[in-house]
Amino acid sequence: MAGSRIYKLGSIFTRVEGLLKAGGMQPSEQPLWLDVYRAFPPVEEPSFYRTVTATGPVRPILYPEDTARMQFYREHGNTIIDLQNTTELSPCQRFLQESGHLDQSQ
């Protein structure tokens, strides 16, 4: 039975559907996303064995401020940042704004 729980054998949708049909999961316990998935199924069923079709080489995603950010953290290290405080910028963001690496819109 343990082999049927392996992630390669089916999508999470088919496993949840199987649990609901077999009585392993009550309808009141079903995940919120299940109704949305039923209403809007994907074009192709997600599968572990599906190969990705390459559309070209993967472009490196580097922004101009990335090198400045790297140098800042190399010199000053990481600091503790309060993610709930949206009014105050992190020291790195302040450095990038003052040095002109970021647009004023951010």
UniProtKB/TrEMBL annotation:
GO BP field: translation
Lineage: Eukaryota, Metazoa, Ecdysozoa, Arthropoda, Chelicerata
GO molecular function: structural constituent of ribosome
Start and end residues of each Small ribosomal subunit protein mS23 conserved domain: 2-104
Family the entry assigns: Belongs to the mitochondrion-specific ribosomal protein mS23 family.
Organism superkingdom: Eukaryota
Swiss-Prot/TrEMBL keywords: Mitochondrion, Ribonucleoprotein, Ribosomal protein
The protein's name: Small ribosomal subunit protein mS23
Pfam families: MRP-S23
Source organism: Amblyomma triste (Neotropical tick)
GO cellular-component term (any): mitochondrion
Subcellular location: Mitochondrion
